[in-house]
User: What shape does this take?
Amino acid sequence: MSKQEIRGCCPLDCQDSCAWIATVEDGRVTSMKGDPDHPMTRGVLCAKVKDYESRAYAADRLLTPMRRTGPKGEGQFEPITWDEALDTIASRWRGIIEGHGAEALMPLHYLGSMGVLQRFALMRLFHALGASKTHGDVCGRAAQSIAQLGHPSSFDPEEIAESRLIVLWGVNILTTAHHHWHFIQQARREHGAEVISIDPRTTRTALQSDMHLAIRPGTDVVLAAALGRIMLEEGLHDAAYAEQVITDLEAYRAEVAPWTPERAGAVCGLAPGDIRALARKLGAARPAVIRSGIGPQQTANGEGYARALSALTLLGGHWAHKGGGLFVESYPEFDEGAVERAEIGPAGRRSLDLSRLGQALNDESLGPPVLGLTVWNMNPAVIQPDVEAVWRGLSRDDLFTVVIEHFMTDTARFADIVLPSTTQLEHFDIQGAWGHHYISLNQPAIPPEGEARSHGDIMRALARRLGLDHPALSEDDASIAAAALPAHVSMADLESRGWVKASPPRPDPLASGARLSISIGLAADGTCDGAPLPAADAAKLRLLTPKAHHFLNSSFANMARHRAAQKGPVLQVHPEDAASHGLEDGALALVKGEAADLEVAVEITERVRPGVVAMDGKWWRATDGARAVANRLAPARWTPYGQPAYNDIIVELSPLRLAAE
Ligand SMILES: Nc1nc2c(c(=O)[nH]1)N[C@H]1C(S)=C(S)[C@@H](COP(=O)(O)OP(=O)(O)OC[C@H]3O[C@@H](n4cnc5c(=O)[nH]c(N)nc54)[C@H](O)[C@@H]3O)O[C@H]1N2
Ligand SMILES: Nc1nc2c(c(=O)[nH]1)N[C@H]1C(S)=C(S)[C@@H](COP(=O)(O)OP(=O)(O)OC[C@H]3O[C@@H](n4cnc5c(=O)[nH]c(N)nc54)[C@H](O)[C@@H]3O)O[C@H]1N2
Ligand code: SF4
Ligand SMILES: [Mo]
Assistant: This one.
């Protein structure tokens, strides 16, 4: 019997980017574990990924190319050969390009796999063809907007071990990035650091925090303004730092002046005393870190929220101290963009917002219309805002859709051709991270299952069919991937241990001589970026759709173990709201949104604050029915910089019928 341990890394869209070791016995992966030597992973994988091999070997895994035989969206397909699939795609694309120009082709991908080959190898093909480009984000676009203003929002998370106060602002770290928790515990142990959670839900993270402020969703910008007001009033800010770095301190003072703790407390649903206490903690601790999640960015005033948090860390001068500042995301030195080689295509091509697929597919004025859509690493039929518009668009008869996937997802069910992709156990790849400073290598542990192919192979095969001969389209995987590496890291460095730390310099606006505006854009009436604050209307509730502990967005929503652990689509309702709406525990509720309804079983729990209901996880129409797909209710609304406002969902609740009947 042969037994081998193969080094790899978890490709999922998660801030931890764990290094893993796969045990292979007689050609089959029999177990997975975290790399004990990796400073973030520390030997542990999460509840989702500890048996990742079950995903590679799943009975419903796509193992051959497929052609649709029934109506779009219904899931009737027949297996075809790779030759048939590649010929069909090449001839359909040629027809589209001849009739309407190459910009009628739209590539659409996100972070289903974070590997640079799985993400970007195919983009070389689309650039060479002259397809439309894409921009935008379906995740945390709001905080990216502050980089445009010169504000930092990133540093090495290992430094958090040095922090004296850790404000976990709208982040459920024990579910979504639990390998970061280690450094928080170290700060508690070594420096007596306090941990504060600001979240409308009593999450796993809130339960482990020293203080929990159960804020009304969408009102964080007001809380941050009140904190700034108290810090200035009580002289708790770092006046010398602020004077040198901030250009408009007096304007900020005037902007936050209306937000007394009492007025902010009424808007945010918090006790004024708690707001004061938090401001004093923030004023006293050096360094303090505000560690923001993605949830609170996903509202109409998400950009104001990001500006307001940054203002607090600048006022406090926290950036001058290791472990202090605003932490939203964090990246190693790693040039992912270099992999796709956009420059091999024609300049001046149009770019489509990848978070507005519904609009792109339904916009009749778009010239040329999108006629050829290719999707990989993404399940837009579940996760995009206004997902019914996406379904309508994907149903168009004149749209030729290719989906590259591991499973027959809701999106794949709309495809004309589905291509089977290798999983991380079956291909070589390298990746950066969005939550730390390590670059990771993934070696294939087993050959491709069935007829699955890596995206590098699919790109090269399609390029040959299409007669494209640019040298970038015949490079091998190792050379394609190497384009992302910084000059001081070689593939051999990565191969020796599986990962390399490549830290960019720590940002400190004072040291770099930056002069920054900290204006929030919050009007005295609470309007921010033109969006009003959420109204407190007792009849209506706000629906949150946070990350599930056992899913990764909509990934794993088809896997038996993960589904059982997640216990199906459930709506969490506070006892007061349940009573006033006549809802019983376990009964089905009708969740009425602006344009669609959901039907979900109720769980009565004090883990959500009154006025808020929550549904964990992204469920597929194919497995749980259209009335479990929450993004049918997510409005077609974006912040000015393009953040989808998934969290601005207002619903009415009523009992449907008893689940037992
Ligand atoms: N287990 C698991 N891990 C994941 C993922 C997953 O699906 N499952 N997804 C990955 C991805 S893509 C991402 S982006 C990250 C996201 O990581 P997080 O940001 O931690 O995840 P979210 O659940 O989106 O939001 C965090 C918290 O914000 C709260 N929240 C919602 N609205 C508001 C608000 O208006 N104000 C405040 N203060 N809080 C609010 C929610 O109740 C939630 O507990 O997680 C990654 N990791
Ligand atoms: N209402 C609401 N909507 C949300 C969110 C929310 O919290 N609430 N969160 C938003 C956020 S933060 C994000 S990041 C997005 C996430 O949205 P998506 O990026 O679409 O995330 P997933 O649903 O996990 O879909 C990823 C798909 O990639 C596939 N995949 C994985 N690896 C590979 C591979 O190697 N090759 C190929 N071809 N496919 C692969 C998986 O099988 C899966 O179907 O959703 C957003 N939408
Ligand atoms: S999903 Fe995140 S926490 Fe889980 S193994 Fe992957 S990188 Fe690690
Ligand atoms: Mo995300």
Q: What stands out?
A: Residues 82-100 form the longest helix (19 residues).
